[in-house]
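Data follows
____________
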Amino acid sequence: MDKNCSKCGASKPQDQFYKMGSRVDSWCKSCKRATRRTKYVSKTDKRDFDRVINLAKFFSRKELLSIDHAISQLDKILLQ
């Protein structure tokens, strides 16, 4: 028995949909995967943006006491 995906509108067999308890999800597996990937990438981009902002704040401060101190601070920011 085929089912229509409410996201893309395609008619697909029920094994192309995730089961949620006793019912079948309304979006097909490929639409769900695409949405998850998009959300993951946007979160990753936000984390990268936050790292750049933290680096800018770090370099704008006058706390650079030594090269070792600067490197340890940079490691902390980059590993967030």
